[in-house]
Specification:
This is Short transient receptor potential channel 4-associated protein isoform X5. Keywords: Receptor. With 789 residues, the protein is mostly helical. It has 39 helices and two strands. Among the domains are: 179 residues, Leucine-rich Repeat Variant, CATH 1.25.10; 129 residues. A two-stranded antiparallel ribbon has the order 1-2. A hairpin with a 2-residue loop joins strand 1 and strand 2.
């Protein structure tokens, strides 16, 4: 039989109590019919009027009704709980009742999360549903918040043990009964109060888990500066508590609704930005600032992130925490998996001990190394996420300085082989319902989070050279010296005491695992993004040669051409990386031509480029820019590459450039522009800017007009391009936009970008470089409003 509908709607106020006698029925015209009780309670829960709590029934009636409905005695227990939880109670009897209620709900919740739901289907109404319907949730909130009430100047107190029972019951009810978590989230004073319960180690884990669930459904982000004594609270956490607290921080410092950020239209983002500017800093930004103001906060996170397994919590305290986790159902499956690993290793060790005639110890006293490792991995996941978000926030430079000072990068480098990119054991932890290669696996998630952190750390920041060791920094200097070019200033300014130690730096280690990654691996995208971020910014010949000498270009071409990669995300990341690696670099084009040494290979490469210009346009842009620079250089080496390289010869043809230009403009529209595809607009502008330099801009516009006519849609392309350029002006000329990215990626001054756009948008139909000169009057449509449709 199906379970009852889940409870939902707003809860009643904490002070609401109806009379605890049969007289309470008078308002509803006498004693209700048994069949209507749950319906009336449900209506009362939604409206706040009528039947809302167990105290409105007599114990005799509830006992009689329970025989028919199999409510497990929960309403009667709630009736007793009301009677024993008044303000002047000593709460001893109250705690005993809670201990009776708790197992009735916890077994049901355990069955619920492990998908063994037959247990919950034996009765018409699950215990958690009945508990909530008869007012149990609101009563426990009242009991927990008793310490906020003062009687004669003295605040009431309840024991940690009782708080723990209340939290456990509330969490189990949230797990099984839809709507309860949302109702709790609406009680802002209760949510803030929960933070104060984390001061006790006895209730910390239960409180943290409940807060995490509540914040996950809360419509408005909580402000950490409203939490009483936040700095003192966090500073007093031990490292284990701080790592668990990061699970909560992950919800409070990330901008809401940022999933699939690249898919949100720029129109919507710009509108949101304007709104945000008028409202001031967001709650997430306020929360980030609040955390960064806590003395030693970032330093402690760095220590957690770089802590070795041997330095982590001892066996006794870890086993105690595992027992705590067993109570908390979001970790129950983790515990189950960990204990399975423990038993496997114990059986293995026991067999070995018997063969050798040695005594063996139980897994309860001998903590397997795999459990220690998984424990540390799950901590580091949360810590790395928080650091990554802080690195992308408003205080980025401040966080960068602290992360460098506290040696996060060399610490992660030392953990790379043994923890972050360790080899999977035969008994590697796999969560219930998942497999070892699933992105939800802690091992997989840690790797992705690590790569995201590297990407954020390296992106357009001179601290990226901390990813190298001293020997590798010397290699960069030698490359510059040999090429007779100035050393990169950021390399000269790098504090050598903060770089990686050991034989290889973190970037080199990443390249090694990247080249060994299987073709179908989900890591390829993130690895390419992390390495590309190292190259992003002002083009550095030394940086490019450092990576070229390690076979990166050949690896990328193998993946694009020989493995014929099908993943669009991976292809886009590889094309972007290839573009940054080859831009303006003659040696890179020579290596490209050496690898793509047959027409067959070159055709496969072109097929991959042309299959999706959204993915490959950054490479097209880099090759176009490189061609322009090479054609203006007088150098035998450059001349040789120009005469031999298939790719440069292909891009140099005007029909090829026009084909790219036509498709780049055609695949985007103002209403569909996103952070992901706006690069198509900028690549089309690069092609036209270079044409303008050669005084060929009118020719290119005339050819676009002819291509329109050949498609039997005169005006459709140029009208669209006109609208895109108008949007470009609104978007990039806004005072808060950073134009240096466009300058760095193209080596074309931003003033030239602006001038070219202005020339193209010139309303004078007599101008040979104005778009309107090539749109016939009947097809003119250039004044559309940019509104989100």
């Amino acid at each position: 039989m199906a379970a009852a509908p889940a409870a939902a709607g707003s809860g009643v106020g904490r002070g609401r109590r109806a009379a605890a006698t049969v007289a309470a029925w008078g308002g509803w015209g006498g004693r209700p019919r048994p069949g209507n009780i749950l319906l009336q309670l449900r209506q009362g829960q939604l409206t706040g009027r009528g039947l809302v709590r167990a105290v409105q029934f007599t114990e005799t009636f509830l006992t009689e009704r329970d025989k028919q409905s199999k409510w497990s005695g929960i309403p009667q227990l709630l009736l007793k709980l009301y009677a024993t939880s008044h303000l002047h109670s000593d709460f001893i009897e109250c705690q005993n009742i809670l201990k009776e209620i708790s197992p009735l709900l916890s077994m049901e919740a355990m069955a619920f999360v492990t998908e063994e739901r037959k247990l919950t289907q034996e009765t018409t109404y699950p215990n958690t549903y009945i508990f909530d319907l008869f007012g149990g949730v609101d009563l426990l909130v009242e009991i927990l918040m008793r310490p906020t009430i003062s009687i004669r100047g003295q605040k009431l107190k309840i024991s940690d043990e009782m708080s723990k029972d209340c939290l456990s019951i509330l969490y189990n009810t949230c797990v099984c009964t839809e709507g309860v978590t949302k109702r709790l989230a609406e009680k802002n004073d209760f949510v803030i109060f929960l933070f104060t319960l984390m001061t006790s180690k006895k209730t910390f884990l239960q409180t943290a888990t409940l807060i995490e669930d509540i914040l996950g459904v809360k419509k408005e982000m909580i402000r950490l500066d409203e939490v009483p004594n936040l700095s003192s609270l966090v500073s007093n956490f031990d490292q284990q508590q701080l790592a668990n607290f990061c699970r909560i921080l992950a919800v409070t410092i990330s901008e809401m609704d940022t999933g699939n950020d690249d898919k949100h239209t720029l129109l919507a983002k710009n509108a949101q930005q304007k709104k945000s500017l008028s409202l001031g800093p967001s709650a997430a930004e306020i929360n980030q600032a609040a955390l960064l103001s806590i003395p030693g906060f970032v330093e402690r996170l760095c220590k957690l992130a770089t802590r070795k397994v041997s330095e982590s919590t001892g066996t006794a305290s870890f086993l105690q925490e595992l027992e705590e986790w067993y109570t908390w159902l979001d970790n129950a499956l983790v515990l189950d998996a960990l204990m399975r690993v423990a038993n496997e290793e114990s059986e293995h060790n026991q067999g070995a001990s018997e063969e050798n005639g040695l005594p063996h110890t139980s897994p309860r006293t001998q903590l397997p190394q795999s459990m220690k490792i998984m424990h540390e991995i799950m901590y580091k996941l949360e810590v790395l996420y928080v650091l990554c978000v802080l690195l992308m926030g408003r205080q980025r430079n401040q966080v960068h300085r602290m992360i460098a000072e506290f040696k996060l990068i060399p610490g992660l480098n030392n953990l790379f082989d043994k923890l972050i990119w360790r080899k999977h054991s035969a008994s590697a932890l796999v969560l219930h319902g998942h497999n070892q290669n699933c992105d939800c696996s802690p091992d997989i998630t840690l790797k992705i989070q690590f790569l995201r952190l590297l990407q954020s750390f390296s992106d357009h920041h001179e601290n990226k050279y901390l990813l190298l060791n001293n020997q590798e920094l010397n290699e960069l200097s030698a490359i510059s010296l040999k090429a007779n070019i100035p050393e990169v200033e950021a390399v000269l300014n790098t504090d050598r005491s903060l770089v990686c130690d050991g034989k290889r730096g973190l970037l080199t280690r990443l390249l090694q695992v990247m080249k060994k990654e299987p073709a179908e691996s989900s890591f390829r995208f993130w690895q390419a993004r992390a390495v590309e971020s190292f190259l992003r910014g002002t083009t550095s010949y030394a940086d490019q040669m450092f990576l070229l000498k390690r076979g990166l270009l050949e690896h990328i071409l193998y993946c694009i051409v020989d493995s014929e990669c099908k993943s669009r995300d991976v292809l886009q990341s590889y094309f972007d990386l290839l573009g940054e690696l080859m831009k303006f670099n003659v040696d890179a084009f020579k290596r490209f031509n050496k690898y793509i040494n047959t027409d067959a290979k070159f055709q496969v490469f072109l097929k991959q480029i042309n299959s999706s210009l959204v993915d490959s346009n950054m490479l097209v842009r880099c090759v176009t820019l490189s061609l322009d620079r090479f054609e203006n250089q007088v150098d035998m080496k450059v001349a040789e590459v120009l005469s031999e390289c298939r790719l440069l010869a292909y891009i140099s043809q005007v029909p090829t450039q026009m084909s790219f230009l036509f498709r780049l403009i055609n695949i985007i529209h103002v209403q569909t522009l996103t952070q992901e595809n706006v690069s198509c607009l900028n690549t089309s502008l690069v092609i036209l800017m270079l044409a303008r330099r050669k005084e060929r801009l009118p020719l290119y516009l005339r050819l676009l007009q002819r291509m329109e006519h050949s498609k039997k849609y005169p005006g459709f392309l140029l009208n669209n391009f006109h609208n895109l350029l108008r949007f470009w002006q609104q978007h990039y000329l806004h005072k808060d936009k950073d134009s240096t990215c466009l300058e760095n990626s193209s080596c074309i001054s931003f003033s030239y970008w602006k001038e070219t756009v202005s020339i193209l948008l010139n309303p004078d139909r007599q101008s040979p470089s104005a778009l309107v000169s090539y749109i016939e009057e009947p097809y003119m449509d250039i004044d559309r409003d940019f509104t989100e449709e």
